[in-house]
Amino acid sequence: MSTEQNSVSDILEDNTYKYGFTTDVESETFAKGLNEDVVRAISKKKEEPQFMLDFRLKAFAKWKTMKEPEWPNVHYPTIDFQNISYYSAPKQKKVLASLDEVDPEVMRTFEKLGIPLDEQKKLANVAVDAVFDSVSVATTHKKKLMEVGIIFCPMSEALKEYPELVEQYLGTVVPVGDNFYAALNSAVFTDGSFVYIPPDTISPMEISTYFRINTEETGQFERTLIICAENSYVSYLEGCTAPQFDTNQLHAAVVELVTMENAEIKYSTVQNWYAGDKETGKGGVFNFVTKRGKCQGDNSKISWTQVETGSAITWKYPSCILQGDNTVGEFYSVALTNGHMQADTGTKMIHLGKNTRSSIISKGISADYSSNSYRGQVKVGKNATNARNYSQCDSMLVGDKSSAHTFPYIETANSSVQIEHEASTSKISEEQLFYFESRGISRENAIEAVISGFCKEVFKQLPMEFAVEAQKLLTLKLEDSVG
Amino acid sequence: MLEIKDLHASVEGNEILKGISLSIKKGEIHAVMGPNGSGKSTLAKILSGHPSYEVTGGEILFEGKNLLDLEAEERSLAGIFMGFQYPVEVPGVNNAEFLRMAFNARRVKADEEEMDPLDFDELLSEKMKMLKMENKYKERSLNDGFSGGEKKKNEILQMAILEPKLAILDETDSGLDIDALRIVAEGVNSLRNDNNALILITHYQRLLDYIKPDFVHVIHQGKIVKSGDKALALELESQGYDWVTT
Questions:
Q1: Where are the alpha helices (DSSP H) in A137-219?
Q2: Best interface-test mutation with B: which of A363, A432, A439 has the largest number of B CBs within 10 A?
Q3: Comparing C-alpha atoms, which of B224, B197, B223, B225 is closest to residue B211?
Q4: Which residues does chain B have within 8 Å of residue A442's beta carbon, measured at their own beta carbons?
Q5: Are B60 and B2 in contact (CB under 8 A)?
Q6: Which residues lie across from A264 on neighbouring strands?
Q7: Which of A50, A216, A451, B151 is the most buried (most CB within 10 A)?
């Protein structure tokens, strides 16, 4: 238990960005640049089945015809996609018989990040897939999960062991040409996690993936696919950090979730990528991510919870397609921006089935010179009789140089629906903090109380240790910004 | 207990206090009166350690220690309580939880164990009863959407929970109707003992009908222009501030 506690706090506790180190490992990195040969080379390197190569080539052809989206409320210099390496992997023997064969430097990196991977030290109640740059380096608790029929493995392994499952679902929620970054990801993704929960199974533990970018000019393009069969449940956690570089790293992930009848997936993210220099805004990760879940079976549910505290730029809209009848989609988000960070994040709730329900709770906190936008779409199809949505978007400003924006879009083709939208803006003020201090409460505890009060509805969705630590992380990040 | 010597202070470069001296002993109640803008509230803010007010001269000793060396938080823990004229609203922070944080901050400071929520709830209920506050104010966000009267009661509730050595009540009577004023005054009186002291900052004398001061001081243009006993307040009431300020 104690290891677990450490790990979570280590992922999160961050004042001066203590994950800014790089690991010196011998890597095999492709030359910079992107063309069809690179796509073929990635597929070959990973010894993929033919369908996968076809998938990639189709995506690449699409991508070439697409343009970067300009509608998000973020500003950054044009990315030169030819100046990025699309594959980087720590060099290792071909097939790993056991964890002992993972480069010890890589193991140490994860240990430093609070994610011990070796058998003795691994976290007791959390199964972890550790992704280092482009490849998955270790997955814990695989055996134990397998005993109940749960498949949890790196995507590259799933393509070898369970190609039919991957082929059946990959790209069904986020099609290859969905958007610019999703197309790019579909063409060049290198690894990620694959989870399959068989029917009538409640996952005995939390399942998590930990992403680490290490190489300076490598993009990270991971792909996650989670399938939850009839009457099953899984809670999945995701954590991310990256070293401190003056240049920007591109992270363009795609996550697809599918739930069958009566199934539920709860997906929680704590994102703490390097956000760039607080004063100058130099460096940091561009986090351009497509996350979407499809409630395919009736009475199924997908719930997204995200705590976004890092990245120079975040462009991310975890969404739900409520296809089955009586399905439920939820989105709980806390997005904190400080320094020169820019975030444009929110969700899409697409109501297709009858009696579908969705709720959106978004809390944006902007400090320093940062800009924080909520962008959300609620769309109701003509057959979605009695669909209901409730949205609440609250913004909190810290200091007077930051900004908060809300862009709600509502579209409905059915007259029996009920849609509610509420928004508010507030400020954490020096007077509030003084009030706490005048009662003998420290400034740190005061900020924590105000922030956790503001984020209460979201934090209560997180697994408990995560909630406590997420709160601390936000407090630490804000301490210098208030006043 | 409190010794203010030749205190000068300014806000944003404007000198507001121009040499205030005041001595307060255990068990005493002092009323500080004066017209609007005389510097009454500035004095209160300075005692509580508000960062916007700059002390430019003089000193303040609290139980022999230099108060000006202490941050607001430390002053509170040392036993000073400020009842604000306009208590700030803090949405999202539960009132009972806030009170428990403040209460436990003292416990921690004294190396005592923190009180758990159940025991604290009992203590809180008892104090709220005394102030005739409805239970719903426990669960409401701190001062959020409270009426003026409930905010003031909530300040006195905090005072009752924290049991300060020295309480400064800044215009606690303003915004209170006559019933609320009586309840608040009874609450304050019940907290009095020989070991604590009270500074009442007020514009009107009606509060002093309920809480009887030992001394009354009149501030005008940043200085104490007259001191006396309760009779001074009554005199002010009938003659107006012009009587002492011209």
A1: 142-147, 155-161, 163-169, 180-188
A2: A439
A3: B197
A4: 73, 105
A5: yes
A6: A233, A301
A7: A451
**What pLDDT does residue A12 have?**
35
* Lowest pLDDT segment from A21-30, A249-258, A375-384: A21-30
Residue A123: band (very low, low, confident or very high) from pLDDT cuts 50, 70, 90: low
By C-alpha distance, which of A412, A245, A399, A384 is closest to A326?
A: A384
% helix, strand, coil for chain A, step of 5: 25, 35, 40
* Backbone φ and ψ of A124, nearest 5°: -70, -45
In angstroms, what CA-CA distances link A295 with A226, A227, A292, A318?
A: 12, 10, 10, 13
CA atoms within 13 A on the CB side of A209: 26
Model confidence over A203-221: pLDDT tens digits? 988 888 877 766 666 677 8
Whether B77 contacts chain A with CB within 8 A: yes
Pairing of β B141-142 and β B166-170: unpaired
Whether residues A440 and B77 touch (CB distance < 8 A) is answered with: yes
Query: Which of A432, A439, A456 faces B102 most closely, judged by CB atoms?
Result: A439
Pick the range with the lowest mean pLDDT from A9-23, A109-123, A253-267.
Answer: A9-23
- Averaged pLDDT, A359-364: 95
Shortest CA gap A394–chain B (Å): 12
Question: Are B84 and A443 within 8 A, CB to CB?
Answer: no
Chain A, nearest residue to B162 by Cα? A439
Domains and CATH numbers, chain B: 2-245 (3.40.50.300)
**CA nearest to B48, candidates A440, A445, A446, A430:** A440
Give me the pLDDT at residue A29, please.
75
ipTM of the complex in this document = 0.95
Least trusted range by pLDDT, from A2-16, A46-60, A418-432: A2-16
Q: Tell me how far CA of residue A185 lies from CA of A63, A205, A283, B63, in angstroms.
A: 9, 29, 22, 68
pLDDT for A261 equals 98
Among B residues 213-242, those touching chain A with beta carbons less than 8 Å apart: none
pTM over cut 0.90: no
- Annotated domain spans of chain A: 2-479
Q: Cβ contacts (< 8 Å) between B70 and chain A: which residues?
A: none
Q: Does B107 touch chain A (CB under 8 A)?
A: no
Let me know the angle formed at the C-alpha of B170 by B169 and B175, rounded to the nearest 5 degrees: 105
Tell me which H or E stretch contains A106.
helix A104-112
Three-state secondary-structure class, residue A250 = strand
Measured between beta carbons, which residues in chain A are less than 8 angstroms from residue B101? 436, 439, 441, 445, 449
Residues 423-482 of A with CB under 8 A from B: 426, 429-432, 434-443, 445, 449-450, 452-454, 456
- Distance in angstroms (rounded) separating the CA atoms of residues B59 and B8: 9
Taking the C-alpha atoms of residue A320 and residue A302, their distance in angstroms, rounded to an integer, is 7
Do residues A399 and A369 lie in contact, with contact meaning Cβ atoms separated by under 8 Å? Answer: no
Q: How far is B245 from chain A (nearest CA, A)?
A: 33
More confident residue, A97 or B234: B234
Instruction: Note whether A422 contacts B: Cβ–Cβ < 8 A.
Output: no
Q: Which residues of B touch A452 (CB under 8 A)?
A: 92
